[in-house]
Amino acid sequence: MRKILKFAAPVLVIAAGVGSVMVLASAKEAPEKKVEEARLVSLYVDEVRSERVTVSVRTQGEVRAKTNIGLVPQVTGRVVSVADAFNEGGHFQPGETLLQIDDADYKLAVTSAEAQVAQAAVRVEQELADARIKRKQWEEWVVDGEPTPLALNQPQVAEAQASLRAAEANLETAKLNLARTQIKVPFQGRVTERTVGLGEFVSVGTRLGQVFATDTVEVRLPLTDAQLAELALPIGFAPTEATAPQVTLSAIVGGQRHTWVGRIKRVNASVDNQTRLVYAVAEVEDPYGAAADDGMPLAVGLFVNAEIQGVLPHDAMVMPRTALRKQDQVYVINDENKLEIRTVDVISTSADQVIVLSGVADGEKVVTAPVRSAYNGMPAQPIVRSASQQNTPASR
Asked: Is the four-CA dihedral 41, 46, 48, 53 of positive or negative sign?
């Protein structure tokens, strides 16, 4: 018995201790759980504005002359005179003689042709006189019957008149060749290049130089399908003066930015096989005169940026460009300070703003600051930028 008690006593003591601890633990109140509130993220926002806008698109192109021709002579001869204006970069007026070909032979040809006309005219008069005499003789000597044309000298008169017309045609040809010894163009323009010099012998078709008209220049502007949709321009569009979209062209020349204003005159009726783009053609009237910007002409060969103004107004929502995420998403902070990810219908974007037709409402706050791991319902605190901060574009 003593041995049993000696071994059982420690076990009983340990069991009693464990039981006491369990009783005390069950009697203790459970600690109160605290639920931490989600932390608000402060984000810069801007308000969406409802506006009636006409969208514009930006593209680029090279200025080229609407009328650009190569000069070739229609007669043969030696160059005896070259105008000062007929040099690269030279300016000439309509009808001004740029180059003179030796005309001595052509003046002689005119004189000879005039003599032939005079001879043919005399022969016509002679044949007409003979015809009158034969008519009178027939009437006096013959009582019955009708005279034949030959009896009245009619074939001879017709032949003489035809010879006169041929001589007159030869005279006109001689005069025309004489006039062609003076190389002229019917427009005001500039010289691109000259390929002949004084004393050089030229023949028909010899290249004399290249000139272009300065009354109108044009710019071929590539447009994507989306840009055509923004401008509401169909392929093959040929506007009237009232419906032609305005185009603002700009370029840096001489270290300064210059702008010129033109209009879209046509849209090509086909898609370019190489680029898969459609080209619209803008024209600027009098680019070296009235349309020049502070004396700077819209020179042929200049590469320019173009902004084409749309003609159809839209009721749309306008917001900063930094509000657009990906291609068609924006982050909106609602009245409950919760972030919403919205999909918008974008119709135009620029470096400063984006214009959408749907997806946001007037006065809603769109996030213009970077957001990491954004999700719908994320708590957010909107912060409106100050005027100075709004002038500084935010990164996206």
From this structure: negative
pLDDT band at 395; cut points 50, 70, 90: very low
Check residue 314 and give its pLDDT. 77
Asked if 354 contacts 324 with a C-beta cutoff of 8 angstroms, the reply is yes
> How large a percentage of the chain has pLDDT more than 70?
87
pLDDT bin (cut points 50, 70, 90) of residue 136 is confident
Segment 25-74, tens digit of pLDDT: 666 555 555 555 556 788 899 999 998 887 788 899 999 999 999 999 99
> What pLDDT is stored for residue 392 in this prediction?
46
